[in-house]
Specification:
This protein is an alpha+beta fold. It has a domain at 14-145: 3-Layer(aba) Sandwich (Glutaredoxin), CATH 3.40.30.10. It is 30% helix and 23% strand. The protein is built from 6 helices and 10 strands, in the order βββααβαβαββαβαββ. The protein has helices spanning 43-54, 56-61, 74-88, 103-107, 147-163, 185-191, and strands at residues 14-17, 20-23, 31-36, 64-70, 96-98, 122-127, 133-139, 177-179, 197-200, 203-206. The strands form 3 sheets. The chain has a 5-stranded mixed sheet with strand order 5-4-3-6-7. The chain has a 3-stranded antiparallel sheet with strand order 8-10-9, with no helix packed on it. β9 (197-200) and β10 (203-206) form a beta hairpin. 28% of the residues are buried. The model has no long low-confidence stretch (mean pLDDT 93).
Length: 208
Amino acid sequence: MNLPRLNEPAPDFTATSTHGAIKLSDFKGKWVVLFSHPADFTPVCSTEFAGFAAKQAEFDKRGVQLIGVSVDSIYAHIAWIREIERLFGAKIAFPVVADLDMKVSQAFGMIHPGASATAAVRCVFFIDPAQNIRAMVYYPLTTGRSIDEILRVVDALQLNTEKGVATPANWVPGDKVIVSAPVTAAAAEKRMGEGFDTKDWWLSYKGV
């Protein structure tokens, strides 16, 4: 199985979804968070979908298109979404791909036989407006995802794209960011007097 790789194009696909036929390339020009779940009508997945729905406005604010995917049928998706909305009072506004032939799951490396031969593990792919994969996270079937962490990664990626800076551990919007380290001895010497919050020539922070 070939796994997708960072900073390479996301595999395009055409698929049936709860919003009708969609293509990944339909969303070129937007950030996309593509996430898989093992199965409909399962407890952990249901809490995740309710979590994504509760944060829909935050994703909209960032211009992010959510797309869910699993190997269940379109009818199972529709019935499950209606049940989530009833149980959690959360509107599922994003499309959910019915990947019965596993073409999307295989293209994105979502099927891990060591975990399950027939269900996608919990993957999250962060796809930029040029449709390159900028980050990806794989979770086991038993571990629900943090929607706040997914939003934090989106914020960090968008800031990196716009400002060309890096973000330190546990960064959240409003925190200082990391300035790229100098790559010559002369630049390293100059860095000490450039006015950043400099801990040493190779570690400097600034506000944004």
